[in-house]
Amino acid sequence: PGALVSVRDLTPERARAILQLADKLETQDVFERAKRLRKRRVALLFYESSTRTRTSFELAAKSLGADTTLVSALSSSIEKGESLKDTGITLKALGAECIILRSPYSGAPYLLAKSTGLPVLNAGDGMHEHPSQALLDLRTMLRFLGIKAAKLSPTALKGVTVTICGDILHSRVARSNALLLPRLGAQVTFCGPTPLLPDLAADIGPGVSVERDFEAALRRSQIVMMLRIQAERLAGLKIDLDDYKQHYQANSERVAACAPKALIMHPGPIIRGLEITSEVADGPQSAIAEQVHHGLAIRMALLAQALDKSKQRTRA
Ligand code: CP
């Protein structure tokens, strides 16, 4: 209960409840807020590097009064070969009541939840999903569109087209957004070179289409999400970067010509000068820093849900 591994677990009602709780926690008196998870124990288990997700989950937990501990692969017994299951059992024995997991392996959060019985919050698993990112992206989009969390419904985003451009194939952010946004009425357009696009029929499903011409996609989009090429997952796949920039880079000229009013998003980390130029990343249409900011409130809400729903364990 309270776990979040995939956006497939999110009905529009649950997404709405999370967003409303995020609004409430964000504006709550800090001392009141810090009572909510006072002395509850949250473990952050990170097998992959992270700046935004790790820091915001940790700050979110601390803002709610929880005690946190960070276990990262390079400084733990994971380096000696300890399995995910045994690491989870160890954290539970130390009193962890919720585990936030980032893993290079798709599906790892399911295994951890099964072997510990604890609520697991997926902080990104391989090429599978990044559900808290999709929720913070949703909060950013709703603010841009002027839609209140209370109005979230299966048709709330009707008529909105979101283009996601770049390394779709390796992106858990693209998958989570493409699963969540059509359930709220949005159309998602994937754009990028053929080797970086997934087989949609076998994968994502309705409400998602492909447009290889980035400028055509930009012209019909209210929201554009740029993605980094995930060099660490390319596994020998060769991408001509000059050609990539020529066709798929978000630069000032292209954005001004094709999408002068669109919101420009990026989950980060950004590679300036490759998928996006500094002029666009730092420009007036960019929501990149705002996305990061929304991560804190969303992750407070996820932690509050996860721990409110799990009975407080008696500790020595
Ligand atoms: N967006 C995101 O997941 O960033 P980090 O890898 O820095 O957490």
TrEMBL record:
Pathway field: Pyrimidine metabolism; UMP biosynthesis via de novo pathway; (S)-dihydroorotate from bicarbonate: step 2/3
Annotated ranges, domain Aspartate/ornithine carbamoyltransferase Asp/Orn-binding: 158-304
UniProt-annotated binding residues for L-aspartate: 80, 172, 228
Keyword annotations: Pyrimidine biosynthesis, Transferase
Ranges for domain Aspartate/ornithine carbamoyltransferase carbamoyl-P binding: 4-141
Family: Belongs to the aspartate/ornithine carbamoyltransferase superfamily. ATCase family.
Physiological role: Catalyzes the condensation of carbamoyl phosphate and aspartate to form carbamoyl aspartate and inorganic phosphate, the committed step in the de novo pyrimidine nucleotide biosynthesis pathway.
Quaternary state and interactors: Heterododecamer (2C3:3R2) of six catalytic PyrB chains organized as two trimers (C3), and six regulatory PyrI chains organized as three dimers (R2).
Full protein name: Aspartate carbamoyltransferase
Lineage: Bacteria, Pseudomonadati, Acidobacteriota, Terriglobia, Terriglobales
Gene: pyrB
